Amino acid sequence: MSESLHLTRNGSILEITLDRPKANAIDAKTSFEMGEVFLNFRDDPQLRVAIITGAGEKFFSAGWDLKAAAEGEAPDADFGPGGFAGLTEIFNLDKPVIAAVNGYAFGGGFELALAADFIVCADNASFALPEAKLGIVPDSGGVLRLPKILPPAIVNEMVMTGRRMGAEEALRWGIVNRVVSQAELMDNARELAQQLVNSAPLAIAALKEIYRTTSEMPVEEAYRYIRSGVLKHYPSVLHSEDAIEGPLAFAEKRDPGVERTLTTVSYYAFEGFNSGGSPDGVCPSQCRLDWRCDCGSRCLHRPTRLTAW
């Protein structure tokens, strides 16, 4: 890995530190490298959560490296398969990413943070999209993601004038999850990451999948969509070992004891059922891929063991 990125693995948590001179700005080469990191994180079954932060205490990232731009790097340069900063255009990442914003997040740096699932920021953090002042637009997600969070008037002011928003204001508007002191930033981000590790990974993957595919749908249409069987993770989680073990552990007042991994399970690899089952793996009530069964109530023919495909 390049000198611009420092990677640390703490169990199932990956920490990525962007470390570049002049405000942790990102050129195309660094963006490609970040994309490789995030794609490897996506595909590594041992990793569950990623934290992205910047080196130092002043800049999370100032965004696109304007020095590289002055030397000929075009705004529409190829920044890699993950888009700018390696994350802004990965749309099939079913693991959570936390942006630990340690200072200024300007331009593409702000867009990188917006592409994360959670933002924990230091109290000295500041956010801005100043691209219009430079004759370009925040097209690495800023002009697309920010309107999903803020009212139009606030979005217009930020993207058209480049005005800065401080940490406390960002918290009030719901852009960030937490504001903490600089000294507490990484510990707080790691605490959040551990909380995510304690949740079932298949459930988190299903949640991200549902958010991603239904956010623009009316609620009634979204209900039909998620129960249609077309989603990858949602049907699987209903019949996963976690779905069986979790409620059982709750009833027995203990922590879930299953080893949780992000595994897609096959509905048809049944080796027996916990109620009215059939040893040949055929549900006697013809259960469908839904939380309700043809027997008319919550399905009691869930498999006791599932085999991954």
UniProtKB/TrEMBL annotation:
Pathway: Amine and polyamine metabolism; carnitine metabolism. One of its GO terms (molecular function) is hydro-lyase activity. The active site is at E111, E131. One of its GO terms (biological process) is carnitine metabolic process. Keywords: Lyase. Its EC number is 4.2.1.149. Pfam families: ECH_1. InterPro entries: Carnitinyl_CoA_dehydratase, ClpP/crotonase-like_dom_sf, Enoyl-CoA_hyd/isom_CS, Enoyl-CoA_hydra/iso, Enoyl-CoA_hydra_C. The keyword Lyase applies. It is an enzyme of class 4 (lyase). It catalyses: (R)-carnitinyl-CoA = crotonobetainyl-CoA + H2O. It comes from the Bacteria. Catalyzes the reversible dehydration of L-carnitinyl-CoA to crotonobetainyl-CoA. This is Carnitinyl-CoA dehydratase.
